[in-house]
Amino acid sequence: MDVDLLTHPLGMDPASAGAELGTDSRKSTLDPPVSKDDLAQRFRSWYREAVTHKLWKDWHPEAAEDMQFYIGGKGQWGLRGSYADYDKLVAEKRPAISINHVQGPIDLMSGFERSNRTSLKATPQGSEDVESAKLMTWLLMFAQEQTNAADELSDLFETGNITGMDVIELGIDYTGEKPETGEIVLTRLEPWTEIIWDPYWKKYDFSDARYMLKFKWTFVADLCADYPEWAREIREAAGQLTGIFHEGRTSSRPGDDYGSVRSHPVEDLGEERHFFDPDDARMLVVEGYYRVYYTTYSCFDTVTGTVRPCADHAEATAIRDADPTRIKIHRQESRKIRMGVVIPAAWLILEEDKNPYPNDDSNYPFVAYVAKRKANVIYGMVRNLKDPQRVENKRWSQIVDTLAKWAILRPMYPKGSMTNPQTLGNAFETGAFEYDKEKGAPSWWHAPIAEITKLLESLAFAMKVNLREVSGIGMDPLGLRSETPESGVALARRSQAAQVVATIFFDNFRKTRHLFGRRLARRVQQVNTTEDVLRLTNELGAPVEVHINPAAAEGMSDEEFRQWAQEQAAAGKPAILRDVKSLKYDVIISEAPATPSARAATFLHMLDLVEKAPVFLQVLADKLLEYSDLPDRPELVERLRRIMPALAGGGLPQPPNPTAGPPVPGSMPPGIPPAPAVTAGAQVQPPGPVA
Questions:
Q1: Which of 28, 141, 260, 379 could staple 383 via S-S, CB 3.0–4.6 A?
Q2: Can you spell out the DSSP letters for 620-655?
Q3: How far apart are CA 580 and CA 587, in angstroms?
Q4: Same domain, 294 and 424
Q5: Final residue before a domain boundary, out of 446, 465, 496
Q6: 503 in a domain, yes or no?
């Protein structure tokens, strides 16, 4: 396959890219080595590029502020990290009120998603893979249950709607109960504290990102235990950095500046952040994933149509030169993901290796949910709610403060009547005053409580409406009532409009779930490589057993394996999945609801359809049972599906009645209609040919 070499993500052709990586692009290599010196420089350059780029430089503080607004309280008084207005009110002993209207729309969206979860399903690429795809679906369901994927994805959706995005990592842990094959683990990474990547990325699946850098603060002792071969260098670097800090250089605690890593105190690294915490003896460890580009060569025989891979360009040329009229050289530029572990405090490369996920080596092990991204700005639902929330907080604080000072219970006394005003205690702090006795009490003293109350109610309602209009998500999407009476048509229209706004977020989340399903399926294939019998759960919630990677199937043809699998199934043995690793499939998001509430809603819709058109009962009977909450639902569904063909053919044969006794001689056998009745006096004609 010819490849267009005119463009390259690094701004260079593949040849120069290979040279930068320390490889000869003229040679074919499936796993190009990367010099550690080159890797350190690349990590340094990537980090500087990312933290100084406008995309991340603007988003990090905004995301942290968005989260504070969602939580509420003092955080809603912040503005670019400053809480001056709040601190001033507190110092003056004035109210600083926060009435959180930001949390409601977020929780509404999150609750709707949690109540309407869908399931992942493997679909076959060919008709011969139908049974294998079904078993793969069960493995996906098992993996989701073991990793608590449903809750992790829901949290991903919720946080992404708050800050604009959130990231989840699909990894494999080899330190658990299965060190040989490993266990799938999911880890959510907060983008403003734990991960950063190529700011020039555009594609939702990160396929065009040059690098992704994951941060983790690790104690020096733990780091030495994880990398014993580097223990001496790690301790030396920590001792050197501690001495430098104690000589007068200071650092902020890790997590300041919204978790960004901090500047290096030894080398001249410009505006970077510190990578070392001397107080707790911790170092920042960067686990970086990055793309490498390489060239492969093959020779194509135009006569036979066969293709022969070649070790390098020289071998391909030699083969071609033997018969140039018949042999053609194909050159293909490819890319893979590699991984490196770096201690930026000393720019020590602890590890540089190929992708730890070999069956998914062209993809990063991360999946992101991006709520919205416009004009290279990432934001969620909270971003546009912050200013209205600030206004409401300040306005309500002013109202409460004014009422406290000017309400009807405000202390006052005639001039000269109080020899010791301090007997009022703290009343003066709330606006106590004296008035001229001869002139009488001021006319404004009698506060119009009714008018004030009405004004406050209208003001509160206006603020709520304003916040909901800004968010685009009110109480209507889920069928909840609004504060004002409306006709059914008007309510339906508003509900539909609100759901259209929410569709933007759910559509992006659907893309996230699809990418997650594909990554998860790859991990399932990687950890299930040995022979085993797994106890899983099918779509109906019934327990099933699946025999994976059976040694007895080695050497069998496809037809022999299918026959053997059928014989095993007839004998009541576990279902067989021949080779999980090589199974070909696609992963889709099933429309079947995965939560009890969603299943119940589907059941009611189907029941309503059957009531309106009873003819649908013949095709929906098993589905009605499947979506019901009957105790023995799986068994009942299987029984019904076994007899449905007979029902469609006109009904089932009636079983004999044990109480009826033996058949009477001369009577007709079951299933034969009785002879027609004969009236008195009628002639009974003997059987004969029909005219």
A1: 379
A2: HHHHHHHTS--TTHHHHHHHHHHHHHHHHTT-PPPP
A3: 14
A4: no
A5: 446
A6: no
